[in-house]
Specification:
With about 300 residues, this protein is of the alpha+beta class. It has eight helices and seven strands. Helices cover about 65% and strands about 15% of the residues. The relative contact order is 0.09.
Length: about 300
């Protein structure tokens, strides 16, 4: 009988313990649910902040492009304006001689030489400014839109490099392009321009010490009927092996205190693997320098069909 009572008491104790444990478990589950919801909200906020920073980085690179091209346009426009002013002065002087009926053969020959030289300079520099504006307009429109269109790859790479000319000339680096003519892509030129621009700016910011001159190269090769391989390389100081596997991570930068956002190569990765439908890999040989290899379909849809 005593054993039965002990058994009953033990069962009741176990029930009370079980009830307490279940209550504690319910509290823990409730707290976990609350923490999970908070973590999900924080993750959404982080994703939104990251997207905002990525867009800001894209606009910042476009702003640098605008500033560089505007500075570049000032030179030919200024020369053309000076030549036009000089031609106006020479024409005014010639008109005075004409009205005074005092034009000599030497005066007329000097005037014709002036006209020839100044109009030649005006035409050359206006054409230079027009070429800058045309290249910038196309690249800028592509950078700010997600429009898909057909374009000649070699021509578009040259236009992108042309728009980056002010930065490249200021740094003093040599640029080499080896791309076969006639490769036509049906893709997103704005994304491609952003990728190439970020490669170049990454080299300028991280690849060389101030005043050090180097060579940047872009090589394009056909890969079968519907693929191209674009290799971008510089001969700078390279990337440490410990950092090589992290360069495409968001916010990873070795220049945190010097204006580096850590988003340039992250944007490259997202654009190449996203709208451009390709892949990108980086390597830094022991002798120095950095090389990026980008595999791209001529049309992103063909890549989707194959996968």
């Amino acid at each position: 009988m005593e054993a039965y009572r002990r058994s009953v008491r033990e069962q009741r104790r176990l029930v009370r313990v079980s009830d307490r444990l279940q209550a504690q478990l319910a509290t823990v589950n409730q707290e976990l649910g609350k923490r999970k919801a908070e973590a999900e909200d924080a993750l959404e906020d982080l994703k939104a902040a990251q997207e905002s920073l990525v867009q800001a980085e894209k606009l910042a690179s476009l702003g640098a492009l605008v500033g560089g091209v505007a500075h570049e346009i000032n030179t030919p426009v200024g020369i053309a304006l000076s030549c036009a002013s000089h031609l106006a002065d020479s024409t005014g002087a010639m008109r005075k001689l004409f009205e005074a009926d005092d034009i000599s053969v030497e005066d007329f020959e000097r005037f014709m030489d002036t006209v020839k030289d100044t109009t030649g300079l005006i035409l050359t520099n206006v054409e230079r400014a027009a070429e800058l504006i045309r290249s910038f307009k196309q690249v800028a429109v592509d950078r700010t839109s997600s429009e898909r269109r057909r374009f000649d790859l070699a021509t578009y790479i040259r236009e992108t490099l042309f728009s980056l000319g002010p930065h490249l000339r200021q740094a003093g680096h040599t640029v080499r392009l080896d791309c076969p003519e006639g490769i036509v892509m049906d893709s997103y030129p704005g994304a491609l321009s952003q990728v190439l621009g970020n490669f170049v700016m990454n080299s300028l910011v991280h690849g060389y010490e101030p005043g050090e001159l180097g060579t940047l190269s872009m090589t394009v090769e056909r890969e079968g009927a519907d693929q191209v391989r674009l290799t971008y390389a510089d001969d700078g100081k390279g990337i440490p092996e410990d950092n090589l596997g992290r360069i495409f991570d968001p916010f990873f930068t070795t220049r945190r205190g010097s204006g580096g956002s850590g988003l340039g190569l992250h944007i490259v990765y997202n654009l190449v693997t996203g709208p451009l439908g390709g892949s990108v890999a980086a390597e830094s040989p022991p002798g120095g320098g950095t090389r990026f290899t980008v595999q791209l379909p001529l049309s992103p849809w063909s890549a989707s069909a194959l996968s």
